[in-house]
Design brief:
- The protein is of the alpha/beta class.
- It has a domain at about 50-170: Rossmann fold (3-Layer(aba) Sandwich).
- About 55% of the residues lie in helices and about 15% in strands.
- The protein has 7 helices and 5 strands.
- The protein has helices at about 5-40, 50, 65-75, 90-100, 120-135, 150-160, 185-210; strands spanning about 55-60, 80-85, 110-115, 140-145, 165-170.
- It has a 5-stranded parallel beta sheet, sandwiched between helices.
- Strand 4, helix 6 (about 150-160) and strand 5 (about 165-170) form a beta-alpha-beta unit.
- It is elongated.
- This is YdcF family protein.
Length: about 210
């Protein structure tokens, strides 16, 4: 029995769309596994060049466990002259920061600046850029969650390409990167972060094309 030409065209178009959807899904899935494998599992080893390298400032992006304490420890160790905390909100995290800053020697509280205007990673980059330029700083150590680092570096590279950024990823005990697909919470977090990274990478690539 002959198939109606219009139905035949529809079936061909449907098969093409289905094939593209399958290929797109495979590409996205492969990229997700690459993204998860690229996340550093541990911070820079003590004594390594990356860990001991000094910068003008330490910048902490709020939003995850361990970031603020890591930033304070780096400042106390003399890794930078000042600490900037971007994306601060009024709550327990800030109170803990101010309380802990008074426990370190050398009146460390005077070397800490809090930024209240950022509510996203893009906002973090712009808020930090304004502060760095105001201070005349040209290098910084970026402290954020390990799964958030790749996207953060891209955002900062777009906003302040002239600043030397040293990554200092922080591993959260609640994010299970080994066999992450077996942990629903971690899997959902990584998928969300991977999608945001794709969007940021597209923006970065587009900006580079426009500049060239």
């Amino acid at each position: 029995m002959a198939v109606h030409p219009r139905r035949a065209r529809f079936l061909r178009a449907f098969r093409r769309l289905l094939l593209l959807a399958v290929l797109g899904g495979l590409l996205w899935t492969g990229g997700l596994f690459w993204f998860a494998a690229s996340i550093p599992r541990t911070p820079p080893p003590p004594g390594s060049a990356e860990a001991t390298r000094g910068t003008d400032a330490i910048v902490v992006l709020t939003g995850g466990s361990g970031r603020l304490s890591t930033g304070l420890e780096l400042l106390a160790d003399g890794r930078a002259r000042k600490l900037f905390v971007s994306g601060v909100y009024e709550g327990l995290e800030v109170q803990e920061l101010l309380k802990r800053s008074r426990q370190f020697p050398g009146e460390m509280e005077c070397c800490i600046t809090l930024g209240y205007s950022a509510d996203s990673t893009i906002g973090n980059a712009y808020e930090t850029a304004d502060w760095l330029r105001e201070q005349g700083f040209t290098s910084m150590r970026l402290v954020t969650a390990n799964y958030h680092m790749m996207r953060s570096l891209l955002e900062f590279r777009m906003v302040i390409p002239e600043v030397d950024v040293v990554p200092h990823p922080v591993a959260s005990p609640n994010v299970h990167l080994n066999d992450w697909w077996l942990w629903p919470g971690t899997a959902n977090l990584l998928m969300t972060e991977y999608n945001k990274y794709i969007v940021t990478r597209l923006r970065y690539t587009l900006e580079k094309l426009i500049e060239s």
